[in-house]
Every structure is written in structure tokens, then in C-alpha cells.
């Protein structure tokens, strides 16, 4: 059983569990955008032809491309490189020209309860004015603009205005500190920062402009001042801020000088569109560079096919923050290029109470809804009585992204939010992939809770062992992407070598994603957690995801994180951290610990039985909501806690280390 190839063992084969499957209903299938499985074969036979067709039919080019893919200098891909387009005009002007100007693009819902619906015509007008304003501030093609904003329409307007000018944005999530913001401004050498005075979070104004001031006052590594010349400030929170004269400008004062006349120019397909840093779950964030034509092709295709988008009737809602790639691809570029109507919500799901999201769905008649397992688990913890108070009958499709979705969370989502009827698409992708890579097509795939299942048409993924051979069905290993894809990362900004080392060292011209995965007997893909997090217990390589899913499968558990900690006898031992559901907190910790150890042993096998189970109130998460297992491992092994710059709440780790130390 021991394996020398470093592959991840199939624990499910020990558990002998046959997953339940959910085939598409006849009605859903009949109306689905993709309901003929030949698409997979056709795309596999000629992937470049498939993507060229998507690029030609879904986008408007100012100069058509003749060349599809240039892969002569791997790993630096060029897609559609002799073509030209304007990304913002694809999201705006062309819809207005097609008579869709009156369609609502954005239903904005502010946290304090203010709301505003913006049509495509209005959004186009605002972006044109903003583009004129940015031009007069000196922004031209090739420049970088940092955006540090709350979730308000001006954030999207700013991104599109930057893109319209052929410049690149670097959106920094509004929860990041002055140091993190400054590091990202310096890395991109941005000359303009767009921010707001503050935004609403958890019922109060969270200041942003003061953080920008602080960031710009810091000396950079070589003691040089920042490259920033101007800070443009949107008024939102009405909190007190200081404006430095000559440098800082109010958006609402500046914008009045500009009209809505602006002719969008075409830029080469490989023109940079944005730089975005990864979540930092496994280490120092990487500045991922995305370009224009290929990126827009794949985000529009996947937004339409995976979410079965009907732009004329759907109300789309992706709950991500625009500071993450999910917000870039499935709030800004995919939905707007597809002419969709969507909800944008500023605040947190628990403000003023845990009913807020469901109330928004009811209010706008949201049809297609995309969120993260971390949110679903929070709602499970609070209980189904909250969403059950609202009318969610408009929902016809649900999506998940960010982490593996535990089967128990999948079933809850399906039953409580999806009325036991609607399909759930579990979408695997990364900041680096730019767009969805592995996910069901809801009109075609028989869904399996916990599995992302199948690569998108035109995408080829494999699961390899350490030596680069494909594993058999039923086996685990390392996920790779076989061929270049249109929305792929072009490099790590300013660091080609790190790009090569991180993703291409291991398997040559195959992209190494850093995630473990297993193929089941049908060839479907199950993500098993980060390769960095794989545990080795007495020579058995165990997956964090499967043990966590077993724990979450216990009726008392809301959330779980599992790490491998040094152990004298077994090499590594399984250490689990669990949050109990609100109504289960009467269970004593000792009872919970004994019960959960037994539960894992009986569901997966004695080898996976945790050495420790710690009951905690919170888990350390990145600001995008992902569990940071490397910090838990530090705590479990009694080390000082590592780099916590991307941690949402640094106090959480202190509480957990104290808890672990007390046990020793
Ligand atoms: P860093 O690369 O800095 O450690 P990160 O990987 O968390 O940060 P992202 O690009 O935001 O940054 O996240 C991509 C990762 O999220 C994937 O590699 C995978 O581990 C996880 N992920 C995303 N969606 C899914 C999914 N549907 N199923 C399983 N894992 C997922
Ligand atoms: Mg990553």
C-alpha cells in the first residue's frame, strides 16, 4: 500500500462509498445552452479550432486574428496575437449598439440598504466619462492603475475605464493592510490609485483612504518613495479623511468636467488586462498577469456554458469580492461581456443578520447564484431555519468555487437553497487559470456531490504521479493541465523565473497546478487539497479534503481543518480542528473529541483516525475565506506561526495556539 510516487491515496476506495448522482432533469437539459455531449469530442479533436470559434462568435474584434496559438516559446503562450479588440467595448458599447442599452447591468445593493440599478447604457456612459478623466490624469495604454475599493459600482467602472484605455489594473482587496497594499503598488509601479473614503462592512464604515495614505507614507524596500502621482477618491463612507493637495482628487468633483464621448480603440489581444495576486493560502502571493483576447474568450464561454446563462432572463449573482479573481472573471468580465443582469452586494452576509443574502435573492429574483463553500458552511452552522424564511424559488442553478465542497455541504446547499432540484456546478480553477477549468456542464453531467468532475470543452487535464505518468482510475496524484488554454496566466509580473519554477519545473510543458486530485472509476476528478498539505501517516499519503469531509459529515460539525503534524511513531499524525454547529455546543469537548476520532476511523479507516481533535470557535482563513492549513500545522507542531499577512483575523491563530499548547 505504501507508495513511493508521492501520489495521494484513494481513501474513498477504503471507505467503499458509492456517491449518489444527480442527473440533469429532462426540462433542464432541454433548455440548456450545452445539451449535446458531442461538444467534448469536437473540442478535443481540435482545441485550437474550438477556442478560435468561441473567440470569433462571442467577442467583437476591431481587427480579426489569423493566428490562434503561438506556443513556440513555452511556457509563454500567445493567443490570437495578431487580433485586436477593446475589452471594455466588448462589455459595454456593443450591447448598447445592439439595442440592449435599457437592460439592467447591475442591481447594486449597499450594505446600509441603499440600492441603485444601472443599465448598460448608463454603465457605458459612466465608463466613457471615467476613461476621459483617467486620460487627463495621464493614464495611457501599458500603464498600471491600482484599485483599492469597496464593492460598489465605481469599482467596476474604474476597472472597465482602465481596460478601455489599454492600461492594466491591479485590484487590491479592500481588507488588505497598508503594507500589503504598498507592496502591490510598488510591484506594479502604479502611478494612480483609485480608492474610496471608506465602504460599509458589518454595519459600520471601514476606512480605505487612510490606509492608502499610510501605504504611500511607508518607505519601500530601498527607501524610495512610491511611484504614485495621484489618488482618486470615490465618496462612499462619508468618513473623515484628509486630502493631500496636488495628489488627491475627489472622483465626484473631477468627473463633472468630462462628458460621455469616448471612442474605444482596439488593442492587441496580448495587451495586459490586469495583474492580480493569488490568495496567499500556501505562501507569498504571486502577481498573476492576464492579457485580453484569450482571457475574455474563456471567461465568456465558461460563464455562458457552466452557468447556463440566459442573458435576457437570468439574474446572476456571484458573491465574491471583486478583489479576487472570481470577481474579475464572473462579476466584471464574463457577465458584462455576455450582456447579463447581475446583483452586486457591498457588505457581509450577516449584516444586519444572516438572512441578508436570501432577502437579496428574493428581492431581485436571482436565478443563478455562485458562492464559496466557506459561506455555505457558515450558513449550515447557523441553521436552515434562516434561509427557509425566504422565497428562493427563482433559483434555477447554483455554483461553488474556492475550495473543495464537502459532500455534506453540497447536499445542504442542494436541499435548502436549491429546493432539492437545481443543479450545482462545482467549479475548479485558480487565479492562474483565469477562468473555470474543471466543472460539470449542467445540462449534460450527472452531478456527484464533492467532485468537480470534468474538464471544460477545449481543456485537457490529467492526474499524474511524481514521475509524470498518468494514474489509473481509482488513483490519486497531481493535477496538471496538458495544453495551453486561452485564459492562462502569461507570467508572474516582473518575475519570469518564478513563473517557470512554480508551474513548469515539475512536468515541462504541462502546467502543474499544485493541487492533489483523484480520478474515480468513471474518470471524474475529485480535488483532494493542496499538494503542500498532503499528510504522510505511517507511509500512507492521506488527503486533507477527505478527512475534513468525513468530519463535516458528522451531524455536530460545521467546519473542519486537518493537518499532518510531526509524530515520533507514525512520521506524521492527523490533527483536526473543528467548529461545532451552533446547536451542538452542549457536547463537551472531550465527548466531541472521542466521538469524532471514532467517526473518522469508521468512515475512512483506522489509518486516518486523528491523534488530536481540537474544538475551536474559528479557523484561520485568508481574506478570501480559505483555510490556511500551514498555520495550523505550525501550531500543531509547536512552532512560531509563519507569515500571516493574508490572514483575515490574526487573533484567531493566537487563540488556537494557546489551545494547542494547553493540551500538550
Ligand atoms: P496561493 O496560490 O497564494 O496559495 P490560492 O491558491 O488560495 O493562493 P487562488 O488562486 O484564489 O489562490 O485559489 C485557487 C485554489 O483554490 C486552487 O488551486 C484550489 O486549491 C482551490 N480551489 C478553487 N476552487 C476549487 C474547487 N472547486 N474545488 C477544489 N479546490 C478549489
Ligand atoms: Mg494557488
Automatic annotation (TrEMBL):
| Record GO cellular component, one term | cytosol
Q: So which residues are the signal peptide here?
A: none
Check the record and name the Pfam families matching this protein. ACAS_N, AMP-binding, AMP-binding_C
Q: Cite the entry's keywords alphabetically.
A: Acetylation, ATP-binding, Ligase, Nucleotide-binding
UniProt xrefs under SUPFAM superfamilies: Acetyl-CoA synthetase-like
- Tell me which residues make up the Acetyl-coenzyme A synthetase N-terminal domain: 38-91
Gene Ontology terms, MF aspect: acetate-CoA ligase activity; AMP binding; ATP binding
Domain (AMP-binding enzyme C-terminal): residue spans on this chain: 546-626
User: What Enzyme Commission number(s) appear in the record?
Assistant: 6.2.1.1
User: Which Gene3D superfamilies does the protein's record reference?
Assistant: 3.30.300.30, N-terminal domain of ligase-like
Q: In what residue span(s) does the AMP-dependent synthetase/ligase domain sit?
A: 95-485
Q: Where is this region: Disordered?
A: 1-27
The record's InterPro entries line, in alphabetical order, gives: Ac_CoA_lig, ACAS_N, AMP-bd_C, AMP-bd_C_sf, AMP-binding_CS, AMP-dep_synth/lig_dom, ANL_N_sf
Q: Any keyword Acetylation? A: yes
Task: Give the family from UniProt.
Answer: Belongs to the ATP-dependent AMP-binding enzyme family.
What name does this protein carry?
Acetate--CoA ligase
